[in-house]
Amino acid sequence: MSVTDQAFVTLATNDVYCQGALVLGQSLRNHRTSRKLALLITPEVSSGLRSILRSVFDEVIEVNVLDSADSVHLALMQRPELGVTFTKLHCWTLTHYSKCVFMDADTLVLCNVDELFDREEFSAAPDSGWPDCFNSGVFVFRPSLKTYNLLLQFAAEHGSFDGGDQGLLNSFFSSWATADIGKHLPFLYNLSTSVVYTYIPAFNHFGRDAKVVHFLGARKPWNYKYDLQTKKVMQDGTTDGSLHQLSFLSLWWNIYSASILPLLENLQKMEDSE
Length: 274
Ligand code: UDP
Ligand code: MN
Fold this sequence. Notes:
By secondary structure, this protein is an alpha/beta fold. It has helices at about 15-30, 45-55, 70-75, 85-90, 145-160, 165-170, 200-205, 245-270, and strands spanning about 5-10, 35-40, 60, 100-105, 105-110, 125, 135-140, 190, 210-215, 225, 230-235. Helix 2 links the parallel strand 2 and strand 3. Helix 1 crosses helix 8 and helix 3 crosses helix 5 (about 145-160). The N and C termini lie far apart (about 40 Å). Bound molecules: uridine-5'-diphosphate and manganese (II) ion.
């Protein structure tokens, strides 16, 4: 049964992050989500790619990086560093959905996670670097223009303590740490691959139940090299040799090479024949 008023939402402001969004969208499809898939993009995303995005996502919505025509807009203009942050906040404008789950474009689902929609706004998993803060790579929210405007106003007045959406959202939803344990998603719904090295026994004990991996940090799966013949992620001097890390990367690349690359190659052929 499909649920048309709930959606998974992600964001890609450029063609590079679109690769992540496509793999995430495909992973949600592979695990037969009953929810809609929505993608926020900005004008920078190339037109050829948009047709591919539309074949994976139910809805591709173009938003501007700074497009709110009110006083908050002006205040934000003084803070260009908040640009990408502001873009993520657009997810609250998707009011044709009653409830959504936002997922970063560098996440990947390992199983069906539709039960996330049983949670309320604002639910998220702890950040592995500072567990009294949530990580803003996966969160449950309710679209609302009222909340959206309050967030913009908050951003203009207080900025973000980390310069990104995570600092802003943690300040705005500041009772998350203490008020309601039901809003703490299990860490398994936002397993940052880097944590695998910080608490190996826990990973060995619980890691098999991981539901969502998050390739948090500077090096994203699409920055690695992959050998299409051997189906192996190529290791170089800077690859951390952890087997778990490599198995998550391989999973990402398997989806990319099996489902996304063929679409990109078709597009290339069509563009070449024009
Ligand atoms: N993002 C984007 N374009 C950018 C940077 C970020 O579209 O240039 C989006 C994308 O959905 C990404 C999210 O914002 O997953 C958060 O950024 P990122 O995942 O790079 O941060 P991290 O999780 O590593 O802190
Ligand atoms: Mn991320």
